[in-house]
Amino acid sequence: MTKIKVGFGFDVHQLREGQPFMLGGVQVPHHAGAFGHSDADVLVHAICDAILGAANLEDIGYHFPNTDDRWKGISSLVLLSECVKLLAGAGWSLGNIDAMLCLEAPKIKPHIPAMKHQIAAAAGISEEDVSIKATTNETMGFIGRQEGVVAYAVCLIEKN
Ligand SMILES: [Zn+2]
Predict the structure, then answer these.
(1) Ion ligand 1, residues whose Cβ is below 5 A away
(2) Amino acid 79: pLDDT
(3) Residue of 14, 80, 83, 94 with fewest CB within 10 Å of its CB?
(4) How far away, in angstroms, is 48 Cα from ligand 1 center?
């Protein structure tokens, strides 16, 4: 009998002028980008937390602390692969990912196919099992003022 579990992840980063903007493993051209440890890829971080959460394996900060220089400036896709390895180590396999980006600018739609490709490759699943959506915050709050970017993700894991 197959056992399934669901996981949820959330992440937020500040936007700063002149930073490269990594989203879903893709550098999106923009005058500002997310600031933080590793490459500050808010979308991949939310997905990592969804995966770890599904298997009850703590969170991204627990496994990849920002006090550890090993993870400084690293591609978050590497962290995603590590999370899937932790998942496999606990006997689980990843089913699908559904994620939502919330940011005011730039337009994300043209970059979604490349993001799906990168995430699917790092997570070892089919692109068909990676859904990425994007919305604005209707100009309200810190997202609307382009001070920050937010991502949410859910995933399904299964064990036979
Ligand atoms: Zn993050």
Answers:
(1) 11, 45
(2) 96
(3) 14
(4) 10
